[in-house]
């Protein structure tokens, strides 16, 4: 069966620098055509996010920096100049199509540290709920080499899994994965589908990048691993055509990396199986019933909390009989949690002196043991 982007509901599109920026600057007509495609998906009820490269490539042209490798501080300065131009272009071009763009610049820690990860996830979710299109890039002007992704393929995969996207589209200057580099090897065979990224697949990807992007096939295959593990299907398709998403819709050649799970299940498996709990929340009977009915856990229904947890940590949920009922990521540090348990969520601001989340644990961040067994 032929897959297409519109089979999915939350779609993250990653755009490589070489597609967006040419010798004379931003390729505006291409971006306009892409925006038409995004508008069509949005009209069809899909939520879209864009991970856009191009800040360094664009900024270096604006600043008149010579071709060739840039020093870190030059790349950072170029990113600073390029990002502002890029954001403006997205705002204008999406705006002309009735779409509101919201910019998010992330660092590696924002995606790797759970405390910060939850914030970025929340912002993206809220933007999508409000009907806006998050436009995401790495915060290149502050990230230094040791602490940066450097390539937007892996960043795109982290963003997609973080946002619970069921599809990640990598638009690139190649149309997919081949058994060898097709420019060099006439026997290279195209792969339409990769169910799992095995060492053999990794070896095929090699490490060659193109002149302008930091990626290449290796980072794309790394991205596929992140995406598939997070329940996000990934597709690599050519961005070297006008209306590249429509082209995929119409069956253009591409490589699919289907995910076995949906993002919600993959996330729940991760929460229940991979994180070591650092504390516990004791629930009263009403709270247990509420979470069993699929609701979030509110502070009001918690009788006691223990441990040394911090916001974003995994904690155990314990019922009135002292049995573990499930696990999840807690939205407060133990200090604050102790102050607000048993209290109504409307009182949180007065008690803590700042507004916080209404839930102690969001339902997306919570897995009951009975459910965990069915996920395995
Ligand atoms: N974040 C970089 C930029 O916007 C691009 C990274 C990449 O080439 O993948 O310029």
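^ structure tokens above, recovered residues below v
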């Amino acid at each position: 069966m032929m897959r297409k982007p519109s089979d999915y509901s939350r779609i993250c599109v990653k755009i490589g620098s070489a597609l967006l920026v040419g010798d004379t600057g931003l390729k505006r007509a291409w971006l306009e055509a892409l925006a038409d495609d995004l508008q069509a998906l949005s009209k069809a009820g899909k939520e879209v996010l864009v991970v856009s490269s191009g800040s360094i490539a664009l900024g270096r042209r604006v600043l008149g920096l010579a071709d060739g490798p840039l020093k870190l501080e030059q790349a950072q300065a170029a990113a600073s100049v390029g990002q502002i131009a890029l954001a403006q272009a997205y705002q204008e071009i999406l705006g002309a199509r009735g779409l509101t763009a919201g910019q998010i610049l992330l660092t590696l820690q924002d995606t790797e540290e759970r405390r910060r990860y939850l914030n970025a996830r929340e912002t993206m979710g809220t933007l999508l709920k409000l009907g806006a299109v998050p436009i995401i890039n790495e915060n290149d002007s502050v990230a230094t080499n040791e602490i940066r992704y450097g390539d937007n393929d892996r960043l795109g995969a982290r963003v997609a899994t973080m946002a619970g996207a069921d599809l990640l589209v990598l638009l690139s200057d190649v149309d997919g994965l081949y058994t060898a580099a097709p420019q060099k090897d006439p026997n290279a065979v195209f792969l339409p589908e990769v169910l799992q990224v095995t060492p053999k697949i990794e070896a095929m990807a090699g490490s060659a990048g193109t002149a302008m992007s930091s990626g290449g096939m290796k980072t794309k295959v790394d991205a596929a691993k992140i995406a598939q593990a997070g329940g996000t299907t990934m597709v690599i398709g050519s961005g070297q055509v006008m209306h590249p998403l429509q082209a995929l819709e119409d069956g253009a050649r591409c490589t699919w990396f289907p995910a076995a799970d949906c993002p919600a299940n993959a996330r729940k498996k991760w929460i229940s199986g991979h994180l070591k709990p650092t504390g516990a929340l004791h629930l009263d009977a009403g709270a247990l019933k509420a979470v069993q009915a699929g609701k979030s856990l509110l502070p009001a229904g918690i009788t006691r909390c223990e441990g040394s947890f911090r916001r974003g940590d995994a904690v155990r949920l314990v019922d009135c009989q002292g049995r573990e009922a499930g696990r999840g990521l807690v939205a407060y540090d133990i200090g604050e949690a102790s102050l607000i348990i048993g209290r109504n969520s409307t009182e949180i601001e007065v008690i803590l002196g700042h507004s916080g989340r209404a839930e102690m644990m969001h339902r997306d961040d919570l897995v009951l043991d009975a459910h965990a067994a069915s996920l395995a």
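The first helix runs from residue 17 to 20.
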